[in-house]
Design a protein that fits this description.
This protein is α+β, with helices and mostly antiparallel strands. The protein has 3 helices and 4 strands; from the N terminus they run βαββαβα. The protein has a 4-stranded antiparallel sheet with strand order 2-3-1-4. The longest helix has 14 residues, at 63-76. The chain is elongated, with a radius of gyration of 14 Å.
Length: 106
């Protein structure tokens, strides 16, 4: 079976999060995506500490499609340094994981 990943990114509006999610699914870079938010992100940027509302996008993809998904997120994102974190899925429903693989890898 193809290896499955969850990929997390964040952005500054619900609309942008939905656009990132839709584009990834449309282009078969991810089988699905959930948008959560707002959450408060606390971070240091250019020497200052910020606390801002953000929306998280959690995408499900395969290792085969990860590079293309990351390239899409970098191109479509409005941040200079977008959060893009991938984590392997180490377990889950076999039917669901097979569906993710079919949606992404055909």
């Amino acid at each position: 079976m193809t290896d499955i990943l969850t990929v997390l990114t964040t952005t500054d509006t619900a609309e942008r999060a939905a656009e990132l999610a839709r584009g990834a699914v449309r282009d078969r870079l991810a089988a699905c995506a959930q948008v959560n938010g707002p959450v408060t992100s606390v971070y240091r940027w250019q020497g200052e500490i910020h606390a801002d509302p953000e929306w998280q996008v959690l995408l499900k993809t395969t290792t085969n499609r990860y590079e293309a998904l990351e390239a899409y997120l970098r191109q479509a994102h409005t941040y200079d340094v977008p959060e893009i974190i991938a984590a392997p899925v180490t377990g889950g429903s076999a039917d669901y994981l097979a569906w993710v693989a079919r949606e992404c890898d055909g």
